[in-house]
Amino acid sequence: MDKRIFQIALTLVPGIGSITGRKLIKTCGSSEAVFMETASNLTRIRGLNKQIVYELKSSNYLKRAEKELHFILQKRIQMISIEDETYPFRLKECEDGPLVLFFKGNGDINARKTIAIVGTRSPTEYGRQQCVKFVHGLKQVNALIISGLAYGIDSIAHRTALQDGCDTLGVLAHGFHTIYPPANRKLASRILQQGGLLTEFISGAKPDRENFPKRNRIVAGLSDAVLVVESAERGGALITADIAVSYNRDVFAVPGRTDDKHSGGCNWLIYDNKAALVRTPGDIISLMQWDDNRGGGVQTHIFTDLDPRFKKLYLLLREHAGLRIDQLLALSGFDNGDLKVMLLEMELAGYIRVFPGNLYMPV
């Protein structure tokens, strides 16, 4: 049986979320091994009750997963499991990252620079102008623009990115059998040609209310930073910002008038020190150290000035689009103490950045 059937099926079993699913895969060795494990052994795994074990032994989920595999093959949808090397490295460091993702498009979800742009579904003219301004400005660093394909700021961010020739990624709160909101079907079709659409939901999954926070965690987890353009004191954009903070992502907010209810959420994020105030795209580029105007860029400079050991580390990081410290230890052959000292020096010099889970990325 195709291993993808087991990978999809694990996401369908009631009581098994992303965190428990990861634990099961790590304990048993793979999604397939989870289903092949005996009931007595499964009951010994902490966090699994008898009902979950019973569900795992049911054939219903494997049958549904088989149908889903047929659907994605028919629709030419790419499936990415957390067991695959192609799984987004940023999302992999989030403990509740989805076990399975479904992707359609031609973009790179592991792009070197990614930023989520979110906000209200009912933007003012000020919000629209600010969203367009920031997307225009981020074009110069070729950042992947991520959003949720919703009305308002999300749609403006996607459309502006498309107009500017930038890749954009729309994260869905439902399966690939539909597009929500229906008014964005043409926009979604254009995104497929210049980026892509991504979801964790199987076909038939509707855009139910509880799915949107799940969608928002993917938006936050895939991003180096989250920009909230315009938001009231309550809304999905603030949920995304809070999740981003929990993932140790950078969060930025465009301020508004103190008495403007449309900017109440942005102003609160800044006041509560959850977001940095940004006035221009240049503020983000500077704070994220995305400005490559350093004597022809890091790559040219590094080969002329760096010690051969530092050069070796940098090339490893570029080749693998980022590595964890344990992977660097294995690949570089350096002593643990020496490696940590070198990585710290390279970070302070601005050659690399460190992400949650000791993931090192070249700048």
Give a description of the structure.
- By secondary structure, this protein is α/β, with parallel strands linked by helices.
- It folds into 3 domains: 3-76, Orthogonal Bundle (DNA polymerase, domain 1); 114-287, Rossmann fold (3-Layer(aba) Sandwich); 298-362, Winged helix-like DNA-binding domain superfamily/Winged helix DNA-binding domain (Arc Repressor Mutant, subunit A, Orthogonal Bundle).
- It has helices at 3-12, 18-28, 31-36, 39-43, 50-56, 60-74, 89-92, 125-138, 153-164, 185-192, 211-221, 236-246, 264-271, 281-287, 298-305, 308-320, 325-332, 336-348, and strands at 78-81, 100-105, 114-118, 144-147, 168-171, 195-199, 225-228, 250-253, 276-277, 323-324, 352-355, 359-362.
- Strand 7 (225-228), helix 12 (236-246) and strand 8 form a beta-alpha-beta unit.
- Residues 293-304 have low confidence and may be disordered.
Radius of gyration: 22 Å
Characterize the main sheet.
9 strands, mixed
Q: So what's the CATH class of the largest domain?
A: Alpha Beta
Secondary-structure element order, N to C: HHHHHHEHEEHEHEHEHEHEHEHHHEHHEE
Helix content: 40-55%
Low-confidence stretches: 293-304
Enumerate how many helices there are, as a single number: 18
β-strand percent reads 5-15%
Task: Compute the number of structural domains.
Answer: 3
Q: Classify the fold: give the CATH topology of the largest domain.
A: Rossmann fold
Shape: globular
**Structural class, from secondary structure content?**
alpha/beta
- Average pLDDT: 91
Distance from first to last alpha carbon: 42 Å
Number of strands: 12
